[in-house]
Amino acid sequence: MNTAFSRAVLASEWTKIRTMRSTTWTLALTFVLSAGLGTLVALSLRANIDRAVNFDPAFAGLYSLTLGQLGLVVFGVLLVGSEYSSGTIRTSLAAVPRRGVFFSGKVLAGALVALVVAAATVIVTFVVAQTALGPYRTTMGADGIPARLGGACVYLTLICVFSMGVATMLRSSAVSLGILLPLLFLGSQGLGNVPALKSVLQYLPDQAGLVLMHLTGPQDDPRFGHGYGPWGALMILLAWTAASLLGGYLTLCRRDA
Length: 257
Hints:
Blueprint: H1 2-19, H2 21-47, H3 57-63, H4 65-86, H5 88-95, H6 99-133, H7 145-170, H8 173-188, H9 195-201, H10 205-212, H11 230-254
Helix pairs in contact: 1-6, 2-3, 2-4, 2-6, 3-6, 4-6, 4-7, 4-8, 6-7, 7-8, 7-10, 7-11, 10-11
């Protein structure tokens, strides 16, 4: 009975995802922004290959994900926030009074969709970027590339789940996006390398994602390196995600819809 009930909750959440008009747009934004920007970066690198320093062919196919991630963040926030803004959260909780089951079903459904979209986006972005690099390209089977691609998929999935937890705590799409989008965009675009801020910002989720995708300098690099490696980055991401989910769960249990 419990298994059947849990499956019904998951199916219900999947139906909500399919019927949300914003879902298609935000997920498409992740794909188009990542692949499009990856192609432009690759073409730029190819055109200036003679002046490139420490050329990394995988960079073109991974750096664009730091912007493409914003689509999955918006998806995660809207998946939760739209129920609060529309008032349908009351109906959902009336149908599934066990809030832990309801929350788990929503998070699991969102995470599965995010994982599929992340995998497709990472692979396609990498392929089109390497195609644009032409003779300077690398392959998916090259040394270290599978780990970087896998790390990118994990990061995109976890950042989406993290966003769902934040949105559940704040109960507002606007407030959640107003905090997450500037934080992730500004952090990935340079603030994380400012010496005065780096000691703290390097432990934020987006910075851990950069390490997981090997888009930062070596650990001993005083300017572009971070004080931990890929496994440390994974632990940091998991900790942030777990904290946001715990906070979201406690908020959902303690506050009325």
